[in-house]
Design a protein that fits this description.
596 residues, four-stranded antiparallel sheet
Length: 596
């Protein structure tokens, strides 16, 4: 019940903040329409008794009142919808902003990679309409409650026993709640199948995946697996819906018994002369309305429960984001320069939802001003080191320090302002090239006209820009009519240019950012980066960390770290590691032989 009131309140608060005037007008119109409905029965009863008394004036006035309240009952909700639709859009925008803030507002990535978090995000995508319609649902529930209360008062005025009639609407309501709970459990249980089904569908319609799908003859496999995933989801949901239908049917039968009993009581009282014919009309009309109200209560209860559940998921996501926050108080500023560098002291890390350490007992020193290369087999933990340096994750144990200060005591946004990065899984930001590159340092984009061209030069991407029809003003990506599609290597040059927007970062992270380029081009680029990094390092102590599989590239680094099985297996310069004759020398020899 607490979650129910919290969800309902959240909808009303969000709607009020979105537009108080629209919320008040919608509520007033809905209330006027719902209150008018029971009054139809009152004026019909008065008109009936007046006609039997041959009181023409009263009968005509009552008939006119019936027409008026019937008109209000039919039209007020229609006019309320005009404001509902606008208010629903504003409310949905607020919720979407909230979801974006929750998803991207946390410093780390832990919560984004958890299954329970992903399941609820998927269900919120599915329940988008429920979130948008939740304003109308909540107001309908409130005004319908007023209508039910007014109906109960009018019935009690005829016969106190008839107050029992609204109580017969409780079983359908309770049955509806049980039905919705079963559906919610089924949706959560089948969320993984739903995500898989959508993923397979996205693969089937993706232009990026089209080549491999056709080459390897995968269309039929994708269709079958997508169909199977959707079938698993549908079977669970259909079972829940069948059970819910039976529960609701049982509840409606209970109400039908009460309805028939109420009519019988009213007719017997009229036959006995205890009640007028108007009272019978009143009871029968109100009983019919109560039936409609019961059906409305059941329908709106299901909608309300889904809306409240969706808002509850939003609340849950918020709580998870709070729990994901680092408990260590960030009370130290990011340094302007590095004098000692970055140190790992017995650092261990495992990804959320797993019980195996990806890194364990890692102790190392990244000296200020150095160019550091990280090599190792796939899955050894190289990229994890980069993610820890960028504060995307927190170590399970051990500490990372920057010039002797625990990295967790430096606010993640402030630390990230002093670092730059290029990743293998970079973003293809479909926007004008100037913006797609310039977002790497937004403050510079609007006030330094030469910032983007300078970043392009540092990334050696001039040839890419020169081939664009409108240069840096060309819209990238084929999602737009005037957009230009790039090759994988060209997109990578754009991403590298984005990483170069910050000219003097304290930490430059390059996690295989040139994987789409040929070895000679990569080698030339990193020679250029290394020279630039040494100049920056001499001024600020900045460190460049390069992750690569190509040993001809990393040999120029001041320090090479060999990662194996989550540990630093070897470290030193190229000459030192070759003289050691260990893992690095073996891998270097194998790769060099392949190029002979």
């Amino acid at each position: 019940m607490r979650e129910f009131w919290r969800g309902t309140t959240a909808v009303l608060v969000s709607s009020w903040r979105a537009s108080p005037s629209r919320l008040l007008i919608s509520a007033a119109l809905m209330l006027l329409g719902n209150v008018s409905t029971p009054l139809i029965a009152v004026f019909l009863a008065v008109a009936t008794d007046a006609a039997l008394r041959r009181d023409t004036g009263t009968a005509v006035q009552s008939a006119a009142a019936v027409a008026l309240v019937a008109l209000l009952s039919l039209t007020m909700e229609h006019f309320a919808h005009i404001f509902f639709f606008e208010l629903a859009d504003l409310h949905m925008l607020r919720v979407e902003r909230r979801l974006g803030d929750l998803s991207q507002g946390a410093d780390g990535l832990d919560h984004l990679e958890r299954q329970d978090y992903a399941d609820r995000m998927e269900l919120l995508r599915k329940e988008g309409w429920e979130l948008a319609a939740s304003v109308q649902t909540v107001l309908t529930a409130i005004t319908l409650s007023v209508q039910v209360l007014l109906t109960a008062v009018l019935l009690a005025g005829v016969e106190p026993w008839l107050l029992m009639l609204p109580l017969f609407a409780v079983p359908p309501l309770v049955a509806g709640r049980f039905a919705e709970r079963r559906r919610e459990r089924a949706e959560l249980a089948s969320a993984e199948s739903r995500r898989l089904g959508w993923h397979l569908l996205e693969l089937a319609v993706s232009s990026a995946a089209a080549k491999e799908i056709r080459l390897f003859g995968l269309p039929q496999v994708l269709r079958e697996r997508q169909r199977a995933a959707r079938r698993r989801e549908e079977v669970a949901l259909r079972r829940a819906e069948l059970t819910g239908m039976l529960l609701r049917l049982g509840g409606q039968l209970v109400f039908a018994i009460g309805y028939v009993a109420a009519v019988v009581v009213a007719v017997r009282s009229a036959i006995a002369g205890q009640r007028s014919v108007g009272d019978v009309v009143l009871v029968i009309t109100l009983a019919v309305q109560t039936n409609a109200q019961a059906a409305g209560v059941v329908a709106v209860a299901g909608q309300l429960q889904r809306a409240v559940r969706a808002m509850g998921w939003v609340h849950w996501l918020g709580e998870e984001s709070v729990r994901a926050a680092d408990p260590v108080v960030a009370d130290r500023p990011a340094p302007e320069m590095l004098s000692d560098g970055v140190r790992f002291d017995r650092v261990a890390f495992r990804y959320p939802g797993t019980d195996t350490d990806v890194l364990s007992d890692v102790t190392l020193h990244l000296p200020a001003g150095a160019t550091v290369a990280v090599v190792g087999d796939n899955g050894a933990g190289k990229s994890t080191l980069v993610k820890l340096l960028a504060r995307f994750y927190r170590p399970v144990s051990g500490t990372i320090t920057v010039d002797g200060v625990d990295l967790r005591r430096i606010a993640a946004p402030r630390w990230r302002e002093r670092i730059a990065a290029g990743f293998q899984d970079f973003v293809k930001l479909e926007a004008p090239a100037r913006e797609s590159i310039g977002v790497g340092a937004l403050p510079r984009l609007g006030i330094e006209p030469d910032a983007v061209p300078a970043a392009v030069r540092r990334a050696d991407a001039e040839t890419v820009v020169e081939r664009l029809s409108d240069g840096l003003d060309t819209h990238l990506g084929k999602a737009y009519e005037d957009g230009t599609e790039l090759s994988g290597g060209q997109w990578q040059r754009v991403a590298l240019s984005r990483a170069m927007m910050r000219p003097e970062p304290l930490l430059l992270l390059l996690d295989e950012p040139t994987a789409a380029l040929d070895p000679l081009t990569e080698h030339a680029l990193f020679e250029r980066y290394a020279a630039s990094a040494r100049e920056v390092g001499a001024r600020t102590g900045g460190i460049t960390v390069l992750v690569s599989h190509r040993f001809s590239t990393v040999r120029m680094a001041d320090l090479i770290l060999v990662v194996a099985d989550g540990r630093i297996a070897e470290s030193g310069t190229h000459q030192q590691l070759m003289a050691l004759g260990g893992r690095y020398a073996e891998m270097y020899g194998l790769q060099a032989a392949a190029y002979r």
